[in-house]
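Go through the following before class.
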Amino acid sequence: MPHPAPKQCALILASALLASSVAAAGPTTVKLGFAAPLTGPQAHYGADMKAGIVLALEDINKQAPVIGGSPVKFELMTEDDQADPKSATSVAQRFVDAKVSGIIGHFNSGTSIPASKVYADAGIPQIAMATAPTYTAQGFKTTFRAMTSDTQQGSVMGGFVVKKLGLKTIAIIDDRTAYGQGLADQFEKAAKAAGGVVVQREYTTDKATDFSSILTNIKAKQPAAIFYGGADAQSAPLTLQMRRLGIKAQLISGEMTRTDNYLKLTGDAGDGVIASLAGLPVEKTPGASELVARVKARFGAADFYAPYSYDATMVMFKAMKAANSTDPARYLPFLAKTRHAGVSSPNIAYDARGDLKFGDITVYKAQKGKWTVLETVSGS
């Protein structure tokens, strides 16, 4: 049997040494960026969103993934944007400087929108929890949603309140954030189209806690319903002050009110409040139920954002696998063509703007300290 030539032996030895050094070095680290409010009154939203991402990355890393011919390990770079637009742009630049491969976040529309320009300029894909229509209307190729837009949610709720609940005189309050105002605007359009009359429109901020002046003005108009666009840090004290002022109007709000935190803050006063949420009820989606149970067991509390952030992380990973690359420029086209059966939805896909093609809206009512389902409107 002929022996290899000395030159061949040297090549074989060099290849073996290279393979050995690669194995010794371990997998290549792939960084993803995550930003949300992690301190302050909205910290519970960020914690829930982060929990879904952490579990997704753990599930991915357990697979010992290989991309581009090399083993990779995903790591999360976490930043607190404090729900502040100015902080968000600073955070976004830090992610760009750190050369992250993708962004899961931000949470708020008001932070996602300014940050999206930074990511678009750098060519880094972003899947945000933002629901304001403006987020994807900017036309950036790098922006994608994890949840249904306010255009659909506000439209569903406006029609539901007037047609299904028969409440035709409505007052509207929003917190002037991109999310709160956007949701309220869409609600107002739909309510008027359904035959409702807006008797008063008021504004507050996402830092306010005293609504006595606004509510006194509204009380004089005697609306059948009050719609609030904003977070539970405001909708909870708003509810308590409504009760103290003897306002009997039905309070309606969006998903940032449909939280366990809202129920804790309001107690019995929260009973009867109605709020909408993108997606099917958790109990109707086995994957979401299982994930929420994992979040509770691991982190002690769960709302409903974790299934969406889990899916967003998995969708980004799937696009990288399909492209066989973690380079944003190479996997971005595959992200845009996503078709994924996730835990939050069996049919995740994007349109040309990065909006979800399919989506359901569920309407809930607070009853005896729990959110119960009133109706689900299918968007698929």
